[in-house]
Amino acid sequence: MEVITNERLKQTLKYVRALLFIGLFLAIFFVLGVVGVLTYAKVKGAPPLAVPQSTIYYGTDNSIIGESHQGQTRYWVPLAEISPHLVNATVAIEDKRFYDHNGFDYKRIVGAALADIRAMSKVQGASTISQQYARNLFLEHDKTWKRKMTEALYTLRLEMNYTKEQIIEGYLNTIYYGHGAYGIEAASQFYFNKSAKDLTLAEATMLSGIPKGPTYYSPLENLDHAKKRQQIILNSMVANEFISKKQAKLIFAEKLDFYGKFDVKKQNIAPYFQEAVKKALLSETDITPRMIEMGGLKIYTTLDPTIQEIAEEKMEEVINPNSEIQAAIVVTNPANGDVKALVGGRDFSKSQFNRATQARRQPGSTFKPFLYYTAVEQGFTPSTMLKSEYTTFQFGEDNKTYSPSNYNDYYANDSITLAQAIALSDNVYAVKTHMFLGVNSLIDTSRRLGITGKLPAVPSLALGTSTVKMIDMVNAYGIIANGGKKTEPSFIKKIVNHNGEVIYEKEKTKEQVLDKDVAFVTTHMMTGMFDEKLNDYTKVTGRTISDQLTRIYAGKSGTTKTDSWMIGYSPELVTGVWVGYDKDHTLDLADEKTYSKTIWAGVMEDALKKKPVQAFKPTSGVVGVYVNPDNGMLATEGCPVMRLTYFIEGTEPTEYCQDHLPHQHKKKKKIKEEIEEKGFFKKIFNWFD
């Protein structure tokens, strides 16, 4: 009997040792497994917190002018810009031990498992905020063991590499609140038309209940369900000592006003400009189309929404609504090339073709300032005189001929000054100057000014017969306006990623491409188109709008059979307007030829009306003197008209006008009296004398 007992004892001890060995093995295996999992999570490092988000476009006043998304609206805001009420409400209802656990709430897991066993079905969830965030960020929502294991690994990686504040920030920026709103900022804008940082306690407790069932608990879909969910959240906040019972009762009784829409108006501001921004993103940066659409970028553009609105309004006011004519407007800052406003056509919904950045049209006489800059650079002055008369020019090896004509075939048939030539837009003077300087000189200056495309070395180039882009023309005028510093049309100031890091910023250039003194003289000559002191055989080209202007501008108009242009500037703003038909339809109606100037005057005046008047400041190398506009000589007291004109120092006129000196008046008066004293025959004799 004793032998049997010993045998049983030995057998029992054998099993115990085996169980201990297996248990130890399993324990070691478990520890190694845990260490392995933790090591793997650490080696894998921090997973990215970003998900597809809306890219937001901002104007210079930091207002939202548009966004890109794939049927979803997403924004990312830092935790500091989210209402603490919303954070507390979310933690209270979703994961009350969020700040204490390491990603898994084991007590809650056990409780949920027991509840499921008692109900014999899945009735209670145990996922923490970290687990839900991992699921929303990286995983499909299928119910497989592989998915659960992957979710656990992502949760560990989040907890091991990020702070609780970073995790709750990411969670609140990615969860779905229904109606296409992803993240609390989009939800706040949609439901209450306000930022997440401004949510009240009542609004926060309403929103925090939606993610459990975005349709079922949406206050817009079912207010009763939403209010019941809000009551549960308020009770949970009381239990977790976030608020008192009295507060909860008051908040539950509070009536909320729901907005229920995204502000679509903001997404329709300056559509042509926004398309230009997207093209600039692809051509000027390394940002991919996918990043543009879903990267959560904040793109700070150069657009001034106020000036953009003015430009759009002026186009609509001036142009006959029944006309099929097209138009484009570009407004820039001459100091840096920033595009402040851009209208590429009359209706973006009907035609997305951007006439400001894509079309190539003949600029006509708006090309002449480049020629006259070149002329002054090579020794001409505003007083240089050439004869305005019908002229045939020969050019090329085969002696081709070219006979330009002035508007309506008007000619001075006498000499006029360079200052008059640009103000009156005399074509013969322009071609004579072009041929005298050498046809390649104008091409060189145009390239320095950023004009692209073909520029053939022919006489007619002086009259703007080669096609150019409007955006290039406006930028070139800006370079003259700023004293010759190189600029390029710019649509983007900087780009910030979803982490708040600046990933692109416009570089500033200081390259001097023109002589600043010559640029100023050119600018001052361009003010002449509005100054009727320069009237001669015809009137200055800006006379039709000069009475609408309240400050000094420099500018030039241009007209071809199919195109009407007006480009001009003040010290702080350049505006260009083009009007014409898309399919080479000629401008036959008188009104069509005036649209560009009228629109230009309206845009400049309204854009600057609240700003102090700025004058064009003479540079150090120029001298201003009063001259007689008819001959370019120094004016005397007897001259009926005199105009302040600037010259490169050392090139100003030194001779005084002889036509209006006092002794000349006396001499002419005496001759006249002598003739009148003589009889008819004596007068005839005198004519032959």
Automatic annotation (TrEMBL):
Compartment(s): Cell membrane
InterPro entries: Beta-lactam/transpept-like (IPR012338), Glyco_trans_51 (IPR001264), Glycosyltr_51/Transpeptidase (IPR050396), Lysozyme-like_dom_sf (IPR023346), PBP_transglycosylase (IPR036950), PCN-bd_Tpept (IPR001460)
Keyword tags: Carboxypeptidase, Cell membrane, Cell shape, Cell wall biogenesis/degradation, Glycosyltransferase, Hydrolase, Membrane, Multifunctional enzyme, Peptidoglycan synthesis, Protease, Transferase, Transmembrane, Transmembrane helix
Reactions that this protein is recorded to catalyse: Preferential cleavage: (Ac)2-L-Lys-D-Ala-|-D-Ala. Also transpeptidation of peptidyl-alanyl moieties that are N-acyl substituents of D-alanine; [GlcNAc-(1->4)-Mur2Ac(oyl-L-Ala-gamma-D-Glu-L-Lys-D-Ala-D-Ala)](n)-di-trans,octa-cis-undecaprenyl diphosphate + beta-D-GlcNAc-(1->4)-Mur2Ac(oyl-L-Ala-gamma-D-Glu-L-Lys-D-Ala-D-Ala)-di-trans,octa-cis-undecaprenyl diphosphate = [GlcNAc-(1->4)-Mur2Ac(oyl-L-Ala-gamma-D-Glu-L-Lys-D-Ala-D-Ala)](n+1)-di-trans,octa-cis-undecaprenyl diphosphate + di-trans,octa-cis-undecaprenyl diphosphate + H(+)
Principal place of residence: membrane
The keyword Zinc-finger belongs to this UniProt entry's keyword annotation: no
Domain Penicillin-binding protein transpeptidase per the UniProt entry, residue ranges: 328-572
Every Glycosyl transferase family domain range: 63-237
Transmembrane segments: 18-41
Gene3D superfamilies: Biosynthetic peptidoglycan transglycosylase-like, DD-peptidase/beta-lactamase superfamily
Xref: PANTHER family: BINDING PROTEIN TRANSPEPTIDASE, PUTATIVE-RELATED (PTHR32282), PENICILLIN-BINDING PROTEIN 1B (PTHR32282:SF11)
Record-given protein name: PBP1A family penicillin-binding protein
Organism: Bacillus suaedaesalsae
